[in-house]
Design brief:
By secondary structure, the chain is an alpha+beta fold. The chain has helices spanning 51-76, 103-110, 115-134, 187-202, 231-238, 245-257, 277-280, 302-318, 333-353; strands spanning 19-21, 26-30, 35-40, 87-88, 93-96, 137-138, 147-149, 155-157, 164-165, 212-213, 216-217, 263-268, 359-362, 366-369. Keywords: ATP-binding, Kinase, Nucleotide-binding, Serine/threonine-protein kinase, Transferase.
Length: 370
């Protein structure tokens, strides 16, 4: 059984048997299977308090007041990715009881997750943060520990005890989701927290590790991001390079909607064999022709196609007598014969992947992309 400090007065007729969590500053009680009550640490009347206990109760009171204020705003303008209150009253905040896991637990339990799922969560988190920014507030303590994943696999932000108006000092130093002890709440603090959340999501629950120098994180020793999809966005968030969360969202949308360009293969013959090309290569098409339209099968992953292109170039270079040969090499029909089978197989793979747009035979061999 969990217990609150002995000097704390329990609200209503609740007992320690219904205490779910002592939290960082507040108490959370179970009301029934659907609702919980979050309340501040209120001391018993005339309870003898030391300086530490009095300070803790004071922090708890103001933390809950900030949370009440945010839930009052959200009651008038709700957001699908932010937990909504059931009732805000003098004693505390009644909230839906969430049986779903926290984001940090979900990442550790179900890793690896599909990119569709992870980027949906990233976009939903950012959408909820922008909603608070629209009302002039920051979350103040954003992390995967303060985000639920509901039964429909969507994000729900909660815990607004450290929220602050934009332009006011932040009340919490919480690395790796904040980067300095004394900061002013605004787009900079929120994008830094978002960048760390995005990093944690894309690494399957591995939170970034920063080095602290004095009261700040060392900006020259940020974690490596170049191997992550969207790593440039994460790094820019850590450097606070965006003017607002709207600009972060614009880059996230570009990342999520980007598609690789179609790959093109061109096979060319040397001029001296031009006369024989019609008979030797009767199955080829002209440069202006395109393959007939057919239903496109599921595309091969672009990394596989790039690997095939790399192998083709390496094959050409390895079979060249010229030390300075480029990936594109002029060859006669006789020299081309050993490559014919390889190229046909390569073309078939591209055809089946939906990446190949055309195949042209004109004066040298060239493998590339458009």
């Amino acid at each position: 059984m969990r217990e609150a400090p002995a000097y704390v007065k329990l609200p209503f007729q609740l007992t320690y048997n219904s205490l779910l969590s002592t939290g960082s500053r507040c108490l959370v009680f179970s009301v029934n299977r659907e609702i919980v009550l979050k309340c501040a640490l209120t001391p018993q009347p005339h309870a003898p308090l030391g300086f530490t206990e009095a300070l803790f109760c004071d922090e708890s009171f103001w933390s809950l007041e900030r949370e009440k204020f945010i839930y009052d705003i959200l009651a008038l303008d709700p957001h699908p990715n932010i937990l909504q209150s059931v009732l805000v009253c003098l004693e505390g905040v009644f909230l839906p009881r969430m049986w779903a896991p926290l984001l940090i637990d979900r990442l550790e339990q179900d890793h690896p997750l599909s990119s569709t799922t992870t980027f949906r969560w990233i976009r939903e988190i950012l959408s909820a943060m922008r909603h608070l920014e629209k009302h002039g507030f920051t979350h103040g303590a954003l992390s995967p520990h303060n985000i639920f994943i509901d039964e429909n696999d969507h994000v729900k932000l909660f815990d607004f005890g450290d929220s602050a108006r934009i332009g006011q000092p932040v009340s919490l130093f919480n690395p790796p989701y904040s980067d300095a002890v004394q900061e002013i709440a605004g787009p900079g603090t929120e994008q830094f927290a978002f960048g760390s959340c995005m990093y944690t999501i894309l690494t399957g629950g591995q939170e970034p590790i920063f080095q602290i120098t004095g009261t700040d994180l060392d900006p020259e020793k940020f974690p490596e991001t170049c191997g992550l999809t969207g790593g440039e966005i994460i790094y820019k968030c850590w450097r606070k390079g965006y003017a607002s969360l709207e600009h972060v969202a614009a880059d996230i949308e570009k990342l999520c909607t980007w598609k690789p360009p179609p790959l093109v293969i061109r096979l060319k013959l040397s001029n001296r064999d031009e006369d024989d090309s019609a008979t030797e290569m009767s199955d080829s098409t002209s440069e202006s022709e395109t393959l007939p339209d057919e239903p496109s099968p599921t595309p091969m992953p672009v990394d596989n196609v790039r690997s095939m292109l790399h192998d083709a170039r390496e094959y050409l270079i390895a079979n060249s007598d010229d030390e300075d040969v480029a990936p594109a090499k002029v060859m006669s029909l006789t020299e081309l014969a050993p490559l014919r089978e390889f190229c046909e197989g390569f073309r078939a793979n591209l055809d089946s992947s939906g990446y190949m747009q055309r195949l042209a035979w004109t004066g040298g061999i060239e493998l590339g992309s458009s």
